[in-house]
Amino acid sequence: MPEILADEQKIQRSLVIEIGAGKGMHALSFAKQNPDKHLIAIERTRNKFDAFFKMTQTQQLSNLTAVHADAIAWIVQALAPHSLTQIYLLYPNPEQHNPNQQWLNMPFFEFLLSRLQTGGEIVLATNIEPYIDNAEEQAGTLWCLPTIRQEVPIDSQRTHFEIKYLARKETCWQLTMTKPEGYQTRFDAWQAN
Ligand SMILES: C[S@@+](CC[C@H](N)C(=O)[O-])C[C@H]1O[C@@H](n2cnc3c(N)ncnc32)[C@H](O)[C@@H]1O
Which of 62, 66, 69, 122 gives a 20 to 30 Å CA spacing to 89? Predict the structure, then answer.
């Protein structure tokens, strides 16, 4: 299904994805606040997705698609190159001892970048300081992306995890990475040949 869906949505509205949407708190409010954008929010854990999907049924937002899937497999199959304007990775919370689970350490991150339009943004938020430090480093040195690092305001309430961490007085950080003009990935070369 998915590539057709992504192509159709792209024509009408700017396309945004959220990976690991949990119970959909950010997805629902984003869709309400951005009627000119279409958000595809992906969550792989069944009970969280079910809670999210239930909310989408009651709120009937035509610019929100909730997807129950592993985001990596779904994105590889579904999204056309240069189809996205924004990608949200909010509190991905990897196993601390396994750096391979951090999105910017994965080879898949290059594929994700190939789906982003020029000027498109990836927004990563976390309460784990070594995660944001590594993400900032990898974004600059490995992926050659301009970045902005900010502390998340203490009254921010975008997601359930964000609310929980800020209530505990933990610091949360956000890294915004932008795809610059002329950026090439190996997937662009592969598509072109
Ligand atoms: C710590 S929770 C955060 C949920 C939500 N973003 C929030 O901030 O409240 C991380 C979520 O990402 C989901 N997740 C992790 N890897 C994923 C993947 N590859 N595809 C889809 N969902 C994923 C997990 O199932 C989990 O619900």
Answer: 62
